[in-house]
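Deliverable D5.2: sample structural annotation.
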Amino acid sequence: EDSQKYFKLAFNIDTEGTNADIEAVKKKLKGDTKEIEDYIKGLNKDDFDIALKIEAEEGSLSIEDMTQKIAAFVDKTKDASESIEKLSEAIDKIQSAYDTAKSVQQQIANDGYLSVDSAQKLLELGDEYLQYLSYENGQLVINEEAFKNLAIAKLENLKATKINEFNSWVQGLQDEGVTVEELTKKYIGLATAKEL
């Protein structure tokens, strides 16, 4: 009863579903009632939502077991988020290299020659991007299709990796007792939040 009041106050919630949700989490846990209530009071909203979705027999999980299951879910979510950030950084690098090449191309068109500063900027791009540039008849030529294909290849590579990781993640979390529907919602939420 006290944990329900605390939970409602802490999260500014006053719905009938809250009592049922708190009871559902309590039923999964085994141990001293006071410890269980204190544990639930200490959960933040995200952790409580995860605890609610973890499937377990009544009274089958210790507080430590529940904490480990929540942590496993959070770690997997962080891994997905980090992968999206890495992809974003890789795409940013491609865009930056392309922008640099366009800037140098414009400088050559305006001045009629390749300046030392522009040459230095091109060299700083490195071989990965220089291979998509050529200097013909006094003009810098950018293979725009190659830049586009590089970005697509990085996206496709990450997509294939993420599909494999996601399948492993779902299987692992199913083994941990988390529902597939909740995983899908969390993964879609992450992807939406980290739009490229």
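Annotation notes: Residues 63-111 form the longest helix (49 residues). The mean pLDDT is 81.
The annotation will be released with the project's public dataset once the embargo ends.
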